[in-house]
Every structure is written in C-alpha cells, then in structure tokens.
Design a protein that fits this description.
- It contains two helices and five strands.
- The chain is α+β, with helices and mostly antiparallel strands.
- The chain has one domain.
- It has a five-stranded antiparallel beta sheet.
C-alpha cells in the first residue's frame, strides 16, 4: 500500500505553510523522493516540496483514506 498521507513532525522555517502534528496529503513525485524531499499539499492548498524527514508517511486503509479525503 502506498502512503498518500503524512504527519508533519517538524516545520522549521515553514511555520506558515506547515502545522506540526497535522495530516497532509502526499503527491507522488519519484524525483523528489530520490532527493530526500516529499511533495505535500500544504496550508496554501498547493503542492510544494519539503524535506522528507519533516514527515512520517502513513499508509491508511482504503476506508480511512476515503473518509479523510472527504474532509477537505
């Protein structure tokens, strides 16, 4: 199962764009992953690259992911 969501663990220098302990949608980006980055839909509603170590990716069951995706 691919992780489509991640929890923000650190937001140093990105306090306006990221909230610690918040669940964010991950956008697949193999190039970013290979470079230690992760593409996240942040507080602006747009996707941006952030350091991968700022997040813990969470593979969710299909039913939970469906419920979470309806929140926004």
């Amino acid at each position: 199962m691919t992780a489509h969501y991640a929890v923000c663990l650190k937001n140093t220098d990105f306090e306006v764009s990221l909230e610690k302990k918040k669940l964010y949608r991950v956008v697949g980006d193999e190039v970013a992953g290979a470079n230690g980055q992760i593409r996240i839909i942040d507080e602006s509603g747009e996707d941006y690259l952030y350091p991968k170590h700022f997040f813990l990716t969470l593979p969710l069951s299909e039913s939970i992911e469906e419920s979470v995706s309806k929140i926004n």
